[in-house]
Every structure is written in C-alpha cells, then in structure tokens.
C-alpha cells in the first residue's frame, strides 16, 4: 500500500532556480485553480494544472522573486530582493509597494480586503492598505523570513534572530516565542487554531501548541527550508537534502515500520557540526557514557550528548515513544574540522566561528565572532576597539584566530546551498537596484478611492502613444522617427472611477458641517453631471448642475477632493469649459484652483487642481484663459516642485507641456522664456522618468522651429541638464526623446 504522494505533473518556465510556489484558488475561468512560481530570473510564471508550459509570465521585478501570496478575486502579491512588493491581477501589475530598504523575504495577503503584509531583510514588517503603508512593525533583530496569518486581527512572524513573534494588526507585539537555536526560515499555522509549526537552520521542525514548543522533530539535513500544514493537519517540510517529508498524527497515514526505521537510521548517521551551536558548548572530555541514556528525558525534544568509544553522539527524547532517539554524530567537537552550511548565530548574525577570549584570569570573557572570509587582523582590531581592550594584543588575537581556524578559506563546494541565493548561505543584503520611493497616498478614510495614477494622452502622429507607457516605442534598425514633438494637442488626465468618486463624495457629505451639506437631490445632480462628463450619457450639463458643482468645490479643504475630481473630469466637456472659463466666472475659477496650489496644503488637492488646470486646455475658452493667466498660474504651480509625490510632479510636467503646445502656435517670447525657466528649474529636482519625459517633450515642442527658444534654452544650460537622460535604458521613449532634443540644441 503506497501511503505517499506520486508526481502528477512537472512544469517548467524559469531560466534559473525557483524560489517560491503558491496556489491561486479556483475561479470561474480556472475551476481547478492555478499555480504561481517565483524565480531567480526575476519572473513569476503562472501555470494551469494540466500544461507543463506557463499560461503567462509576469515581468516587472528587477531581482529574484522570493515570496508569493494569493488573495481573493485573482490577486497575487509578490516580494522580491529588489526591495519592492507588487500586486498583480491576472496578468497585470496593479501597484508596486515601495518602502522597505532591503530584500522582501515574506509576503501575505490578509483576509480583510486591501490589507497586505511584507517582511524584509531590513528587520521590519509593513502593513499596506490599498497600496499605502499604514504601519511598520519593529522588534525583530534580524531579517524577517516568514509570515503566517492567524485571523483578521493577528499574525505571526519568524526571523533570522531565532524568534517567532505574534502581532496584532494594530502594531502591538503580543508574544515572543523562543526555542530554535538558529535562523527560522518558515512558519505555518494549523487550520482553525493558533497552533503553528516552524522550521529552520538548526535541523529541526518544531510544533508549537498553546504557546509552547510541544514537539521537536530533527531531520537529517542542516537547513529545513520550508514547511506547510495541510488541511488534514499533516505537516510537510522541504530540506536542503532535496527531500520532502510529511509528518502526521493519524495512524492511518503513518509510514510503515520499515520506512520509519530507515528515517531513524538516516538521522542517526547524520553529522552534527558543533559550530552551529545547536547543542550548546561541547567539551568532549566532560561527556558521560552510554549509561546516561538509561534516565528518561524531562521534556519532548530534550537533547543529550554521550561519548561512546571516543565518538560523540547526540540523542533526543521522544515523549510519545518514551525513548532516546539518536539524531546524529557530533563531528569535529575538539575544534572545527568540517565545513558545513551550519553557522553560529551571534547577536542575530551568522558566523563560521564564535570564540570565547579570556584577556586575563580575573576579568570577563569576550565573544569574538569570525567568518573565514574575514581578514584576521582587521577582525582582531575591530574586536579590541569594540571591547575597549589594549591595542598591543592585536598580533596575539589575530594569531589566535589563524591558529584556531587552521587557515581555512571559504569552501567552494559547500555540501548544502541556499536555494534562495545558490550560495553557501544567505547573506542579508540590499538590492543593488535603486528604487525611488513614491510619497504615501494622500487619500484618507474608509473605502478609499485613489484618483487615477495613470495618465491618458492623445496619441501622437504615428500611432504609438508614448504617454500611456504601453509597449514603449521601439526604434527599428532604420532611422528613428521623431514621434514625440512638436506636440500638437494638449495632454489630459481622463481616467476615472465615477462610482468610487461619488461614493467618497457621499461619505464625506455625511460628515460635513450643516452649511456645506448637499441634499439627496444635489447628489443626484452631481451624478448626472459626472456621467455626462465621462461620456456615459449623451446629456449636456445644465446650469443647475454647474451651480451645484461650484458649491461642492467650495467645501473645506479636508473634504473637497472628490468634488475637485468631478471638476477635473467635467472641465473637459465643452459646455462646462465654456461656463467656468468664460468672462463671467473666470476670475473666481482661477482663484479657486490656485488656492489649492499651496505647498502646505493637502497633496490630494494639489494633485487634482493641477490636473484640472491641465484639462482646461481641451477647449478654446480654456486655452484662452490659461494663456491670459499664464504668469500667475505657472508661478504658483512651480511651488509644487518640492515634495516627493511623483504624481504631482507628472501633473506639473503635463501643465508645462500643455503651455508649450499653446506657445508653439504663437509668437510669445515671454511665455516661452517662462516655460523654459520652469523646465530648467524642475528638471533639477524631478526623479520620476514619466515626469522627465513630459518635460523633454515640452522642451522639444518649445524649441522646434524657434531659433530664439533654442538660444534661450542653451543660455539656461538645459542641454547639460538633460544629457544624462540620453543613456536611460528604460523606458526607451526618454532616451529617444532626449536625443532628438539634444540634436536641436
């Protein structure tokens, strides 16, 4: 009778090792679910359960994808060494979570919608809501390696500091569990309870019940990389010997006596390196003989060392069987002679050796950690400095290190290798790729809606739209055609979610002061205006609708943003544009929008006011007003250059571009000079490449067919400012557009 598992299906799609696997639950489209894998090739492959080739491949991470978690409605969360996490829906990346300063080793989607957790080598855990970091959990003293969800309010984390922590979502650490003697790599929860299992670098699987380590199962492999609890309560572990083992409490599923004996034999023949520290300090001369095993153990998992014929053996007490189980031979206990992957943990970091140094008999002893890749003299120097010891000991300490490591150098053929890095051991490190961290989402409150971060634009001649960022324009082998400038039409911000905007408006209206409250009729009026503005109805906006909108945009600053978003969308409609930008209301309209361009104001309002100004350019009336009030608008708008919100930067760059489009059609040297000055000023501070691209298009448009503008741009030193963008690899449109501009300069 085969009680085991059989291989049903083999999939391949990565060009290098696979570092994580995750199941995407069944859906209408894929009733058997999907399998997601993350790899060292920076990709995520999505497989069906009956095809060896990927259904699709998700590209976007810039380094190894080492953690995956699936959520409701087909969402997938990925964590990478590139320090970011990404949220995917089907084959599209919906958002990138930026904020960690080192590799993200663990990710989990929480049961409550929109909540996600990330654990990182920067020793922190972050809670994200709708793409924004809500909270950072600190407490671990080394890299966070695993996360597990207990319920909607609590979760567990494990780390290289050999501890497990239980947290409340609110940020409070409820409990710290100790038991492992080395890195903990993986943690998994039993169904419907708070009991859990952990595996780590100390050759063990540990089962925790009621907050205590109830059972320790040793394995004949140094690194036990991963564990998971099946729905039936069985525990599956994967280890560095390439074997997957399943442990059960069920007598029906227990392996045969022969298989269990084979496992025990394999375990008893394992070599345990004392340097791992798993068994404490070992002095072979002081160890008792085999008679020591006649006394029963006091708790499950207790270890005992004995000396038999000059050989040190390790035994572990099995409470369920009432006997001592041999878990291996201790090798090199009189001084390390064998390189294995196990290392000593000291102050949360791993070392090949941790020596105890006695400077004088009466004084304290000091710990000296050392890796065989280190320089003995530099290590000795740092040790003396740290402990405020006399520098004259330098040669003596360095020689001690050399003598006690027998001049060992790092072995290139380590017996076990880290499946995450392919190296002898994971070294907590920082991704070399730099990432610009966007500002936090400025929107607050429940049921948050985010004014669309994407930006639409009118496609330039040639059919390729460099503003949408979809399949950036690829140059052919032939001469590259300039599809970027001079730009003929304004770029607008068109994307919207009317349902969310109205939902937010209604929610804020509920808490508004009486004098600002809109009636149910007012809300219906605004709903009709929004559908007309978004082309979902053929109706023309009415005077009554515009009056109601005007009342809403005059709300207090902290609740006005949904009304501003309706204005941003409505102003594209010729009727609305004519109304607000015509003789009668134009002054009030500009004063209103400029009021929001206050550096101390709310970012949401700054962003939407800038986008509304950009959208004014769609009609004649709006263009006329924007050109008449250009000086004050641009003077106020440039104040938005400080701060680190890339969406505000993109909106400011777009406003500049729309002015360039208008200025290219008229002879207005003052306007051109102001625009070039703005480009030169903000080019210094902008980091986001989409904003830079729009500034480059604005610059190109301004200097096309205008020798005065070319001279002016040169006098401002714009050419030297933009040179660096001629070598940008991605997106290609930045590089190409920059080269076209430089050709004119």
From TrEMBL:
Function of the molecule: Plays a role in protein ubiquitination, sorting and degradation through its association with VCP. Involved in ubiquitin-mediated membrane proteins trafficking to late endosomes in an ESCRT-dependent manner, and hence plays a role in synaptic vesicle recycling. May play a role in macroautophagy, regulating for instance the clearance of damaged lysosomes. Plays a role in cerebellar Purkinje cell development.
Similarity remark: Belongs to the WD repeat PLAP family.
Location of the protein in the cell: Cytoplasm; Nucleus; Synapse
Start and stop residues of the WD repeats: 58-88, 97-129, 177-209
Top-level lineage group: Eukaryota
Family annotation (SUPFAM superfamilies): WD40 repeat-like
Keyword presence, Nucleus: yes
Protein name as it appears in the record: Phospholipase A-2-activating protein
Gene field: Plaa
Species this chain originates from: Fregata magnificens (Magnificent frigatebird)
InterPro entries, A to Z: ARM-like, PFU, PFU_sf, PUL_dom, WD40/YVTN_repeat-like_dom_sf, WD40_repeat_dom_sf, WD40_rpt
Domain PUL, first and last residues per copy: 483-744
């Amino acid at each position: 009778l085969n009680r085991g598992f059989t291989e049903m299906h083999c999939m391949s799609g990565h060009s290098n090792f696979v570092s994580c696997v995750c199941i995407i639950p069944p859906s209408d489209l894929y009733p058997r679910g999907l399998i997601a894998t993350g790899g060292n090739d920076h990709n995520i492959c999505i497989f069906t359960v009956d095809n060896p080739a990927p259904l699709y491949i998700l590209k976007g991470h810039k380094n190894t994808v080492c953690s995956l978690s699936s959520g409701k409605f087909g969402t997938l969360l990925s964590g990478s060494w590139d320090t970011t996490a990404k949220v995917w829906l089907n084959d599209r990346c919906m958002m990138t979570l930026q904020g960690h300063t080192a590799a993200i080793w663990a990710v989990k989607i929480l049961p409550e919608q929109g909540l996600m957790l990330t654990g990182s080598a920067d020793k922190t855990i972050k809670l994200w809501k709708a793409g924004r970091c809500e909270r950072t959990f600190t407490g671990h003293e080394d890299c966070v390696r695993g996360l597990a969800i207990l319920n909607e309010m609590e979760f567990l984390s494990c780390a290289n500091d050999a501890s497990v922590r239980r947290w409340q979502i609110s940020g409070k650490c409820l409990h710290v569990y100790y038991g492992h003697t080395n890195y903990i790599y993986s943690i998994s929860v039993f169904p419907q309870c708070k009991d859990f299992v952990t595996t780590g670098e100390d050759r063990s699987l540990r089962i925790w019940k009621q907050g205590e380590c109830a059972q320790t199962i040793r394995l004949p492999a140094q690194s036990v990389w991963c564990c998971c609890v099946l729905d039936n309560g069985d525990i599956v572990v994967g280890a560095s010997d390439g074997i997957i083992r399943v442990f059960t409490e069920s007598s029906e599923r227990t392996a045969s006596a022969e298989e269990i004996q084979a496992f025990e034999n394999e375990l008893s023949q394992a070599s345990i390196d004392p340097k791992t520290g798993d068994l404490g300090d070992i002095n072979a001369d002081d160890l008792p003989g085999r008679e020591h095993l006649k006394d029963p153990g006091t708790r499950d998992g207790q270890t005992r060392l004995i000396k038999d014929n000059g050989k040190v053996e390790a035994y572990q007490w099995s409470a369920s069987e009432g006997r001592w189980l041999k878990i291996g031979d201790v090798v090199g206990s009189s001084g390390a002679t064998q390189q294995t992957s196990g290392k000593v943990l000291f102050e949360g970091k791993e070392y090949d050796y941790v020596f105890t140094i006695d400077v004088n008999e009466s004084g304290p002893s000091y710990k000296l950690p050392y890796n065989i890749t280190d320089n003995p003299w530099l290590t000795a120097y740092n040790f003396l400095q740290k402990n405020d010891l006399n520098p004259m000991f330098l040669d003596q300490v360095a020689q001690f290190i050399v003598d006690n490591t027998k001049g060992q150098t790092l072995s290139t053929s380590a017996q076990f290798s880290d499946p995450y890095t392919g190296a002898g051991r994971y070294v907590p490190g920082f991704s070399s790729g730099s990432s610009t961290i966007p500002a936090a989402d400025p929107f607050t409150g429940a049921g948050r809606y985010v004014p669309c971060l994407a930006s639409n634009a009118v496609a330039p001649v040639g059919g390729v739209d460099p503003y949408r960022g979809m399949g950036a324009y690829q140059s052919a082998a032939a001469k590259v055609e300039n599809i970027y400038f001079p730009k003929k039409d304004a770029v607008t911000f068109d994307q919207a979610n009317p349902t969310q905007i109205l939902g937010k408006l209604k929610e804020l209206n509920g808490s508004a002061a009486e004098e600002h409250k809109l009636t149910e009729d007012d809300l219906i009026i605004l709903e009709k205006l929004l559908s007309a503005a978004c082309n979902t109805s053929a109706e023309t906006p009415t005077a009554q609708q515009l009056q109601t909108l005007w009342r809403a945009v005059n709300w207090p600053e902290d609740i006005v943003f949904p009304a501003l978003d309706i204005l941003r969308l409505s102003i594209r409609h010729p009727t609305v544009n004519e109304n607000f930008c015509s003789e009668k209301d134009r002054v009030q309209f500009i004063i209103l929008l400029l009021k929001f361009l206050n550096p101390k104001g709310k970012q949401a309002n700054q962003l939407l006011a800038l986008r509304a100004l950009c959208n004014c350019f769609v009609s004649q009336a709006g263009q006329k007003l924007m050109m008449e009030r250009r000086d004050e608008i641009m003077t106020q708008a440039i104040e938005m250059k400080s701060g680190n919100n890339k969406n505000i930067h993109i909106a400011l760059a777009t406003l500049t571009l729309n002015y360039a489009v208008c200025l290219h059609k008229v002879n207005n040297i003052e306007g051109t000079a102001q625009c070039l000055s703005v480009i030169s000023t903000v080019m210094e501070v902008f980091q986001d490449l989409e904003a830079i691209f729009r500034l480059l298009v604005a610059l190109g448009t301004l200097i096309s067919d205008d020798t005065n503008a070319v001279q002016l741009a040169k006098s401002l030193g714009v050419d030297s400012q933009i040179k660096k963008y001629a070598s940008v690899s991605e997106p290609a449109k930045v590089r190409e557009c920059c080269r076209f501009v430089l050709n004119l300069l």
